[in-house]
Amino acid sequence: MMTDIEIARSVKPQKIAQIAAELGLDPEDLEPYGHYKAKIDPDKVPQSGNGKLILVTAINPTPAGEGKTTVSIGLADGLRRLGKKAVLALREPSLGPVFGVKGGAAGGGYAQVIPMEDINLHFTGDLHAITAANNLLAAMVDNHIQQGNALGIDPRRVQWRRCMDMNDRQLRDILSGLGGKGNGMPRSDGFDITAASEVMAVFCLASDRKDLKERLQRIVVAYTFAGEPVTAADLHAQGAMAALLDTALKPNLVQTLEGTPALMHGGPFANIAHGCNSVIATRTALKLGDYCVTEAGFGADLGAEKFLDIKCRMAGLAPSAVVVVATIRALKCHGGVPKTELGKENPDALKLGIGNLLKHVENMRSVYSLPVVVALNRFATDTQEELALVEKALRAIDVNVSLCDVWAKGGEGGMDLAREVLRLTEQPSQLTFAYPLEETLENKIALIARRVYGAKDVAFAAGVKTQLRKLDKLGPMPVCMAKTQYSLSDDPKRVGRPKDFTVTVRQVRLSAGAGFVVAFTGEIIAMPGLPKVPAAEAIDVTDAGEIVGLF
Question: Which of 99, 298, 501, 551 is the catalytic position?
């Protein structure tokens, strides 16, 4: 059996200019990065397009894997096989997961975006530009303090953290400015991973250059000795930051193995940040195609919730259909079966695990009022009894199941799903949200926890409620929940559909530029660490320049 990278190399891609031409773009509308990837200038995209938006989400992830990105790609390929003009809008991978444990974000098997190696390793440099803009602002904060501190910044209340696109637990909390007066003011400092940075969120939520600069200048970096906020605008940093981000702000065009156009742009994590590709890329895809297939990170309790409550609310978007991805193996995981036993038939465990799927489906239909189909990724070990159990449970709530085989068959294996999605997009729907924007932040958090997660109660660490009341005075803002991806609760060990649990909010952080407040629950942190055996140990490059060990 070939690996993902071997499959990707077995297909000869089309030149990127040809992919662009199919979208109605001219060569001068592109900024090529070699033969097979390019940036698109959104200003040169026809403004008349008005495609339908299809959101792909999933159950809570498990070690068994679900294949959400793979299904997104296979669905777009399936739509194209049915004669529909479909465009993908996906996130870019972060190097942290690539060299850590999760892997890349280019799909798998015969449902991949290519060039796979480039996409997973640096791509067009967008994440590095975001890192540079973030760290420029950090340098300007400390330089201002060093050069006389005219704004009266309290070094003990600097909020802005540095970032890097790599998992490095050693940098979570550090002391910087050591070594004498010439090296700056010693203070407590730290790093977040780039995908969890506020600049990433700003980048992905900005609608154009003007909006980008307005968001950047609102970023709160510190507080003065008098307790007043200090912004990037106070440091005159927004122009230089926007200059660093200008080329990156243009969406990246690549293709699937079957030649379906794919825009990959922005990559915030969904368990810490808001988990969606850029607003600019999504809007561009909707203008270029009749159908835009996009995905939101991790399970529907995280990525889809933020896609709908934050991104769609801010950008005026609304999906015409939602796909919830699951596998029999993953559902048995949620039923308590260890990974080594997932190949064995286990109806009892499957019944328990189906509860997780039903909760996500119910959320999309009852909380957000959207039409839903379940995409069940097939494995050779799935039995007819197990498949029938899932279909029966969903039939009871009037939701159809589509069996997918996109990993092995590409678009052909996604055509049944594509037909059901097309049917759903013709149904009338009106997006509703999990909470009114006018509610207090405390109530918004409680509504997400109770309505989306199924929590019984919400607890707040000391001082958090007071902080939320102060933030409420800044005006109505959405909430970005930072929560484990592995459970509907804030405890990663509580799989399936847990009951009677309490979500504990231990910290909140204002992201004024992004326009939301981040609420940290459980043990979620903004700088992951590497596992005991990182994926980096298996990655290498041969003397001939061929990447090996990458999936």
Answer: 298
Neighbours of 467 (CB within 10 A): 17
Q: CB neighbours (10 Å) of residue 28?
A: 8
| 481, β-bridge pairs | 519
**Per-residue pLDDT tens for 466-489?**
999 999 999 999 999 999 999 999
What would the mean pLDDT of 297-326 be, rounded to a whole number? 97
Of residues 2 and 224, the one with the higher pLDDT is 224
Identify the active-site residue in 37, 39, 80, 91: 91
Q: What six digits make up the tokens of 195?
A: 């995908």
**How many other β-carbons are positioned within 10 Å of the β-carbon of residue 395?**
12
User: Angle, nearest 10°, between helix axes 126-146 and 198-205?
Assistant: 130
pLDDT in tens, 28-80: 999 999 999 999 999 888 877 799 999 999 999 998 888 999 999 999 999 99
The catalytically annotated residue of 102, 209, 378, 465 is 102
The confidence score (pLDDT) of residue 48 equals 75
Structure tokens, 501:
């649990």
High-pLDDT (> 90) share of the chain, %: 92
**Is residue 379 among the annotated active site residues?**
yes
Per-residue pLDDT, averaged over 429-436, amounts to 97
129 Cβ partners below 8 Å, 6+ apart?
244, 245, 247, 248
User: Is 226 in the active site?
Assistant: no
Secondary structure (DSSP) of 119-150: HHTTTTSHHHHHHHHHHHHHHHHHHHHHTT-T
Give the angle subtended at the CA of 202 by the CAs of 198 and 207, to the nearest 5°: 175
What is residue 103's predicted lDDT score, i.e. its pLDDT? 64
Position 227 scores a pLDDT of 95
Question: DSSP secondary-structure letter at 40?
Answer: E
Q: Are β-strands 38-40 and 52-58 bridged in parallel, bridged antiparallel, or unpaired?
A: unpaired
Closest CA to 278 of 453, 25, 40: 40
Sheet holding 220-224, edge to edge: 153-158, 220-224, 229-231
Active site residue 407: yes
- Is residue 298 annotated as part of the catalytic site, yes or no? yes
Q: What is the mean pLDDT of the chain?
A: 95
Residue 259: CB atoms within 10 A of its CB come to 17
Q: In sequence order, which residues have a C-beta less than 8 Å from that of residue 243 and are 6 or more positions away?
A: none
Residue 548: CB atoms within 10 A of its CB come to 12
70, 260, 282, 294: which is the annotated catalytic residue?
A: 70
CA dihedral 521, 526, 527, 532 (to 10 degrees): 30
The H helix count followed by the E strand count for the chain is: 19, 25
Determine whether 70 is an active site residue. yes
Q: Measured between alpha carbons, how far is 62 from 197 in angstroms, rounded to an integer? A: 25
- For residue 154, give the H/E element and its range: strand 153-158
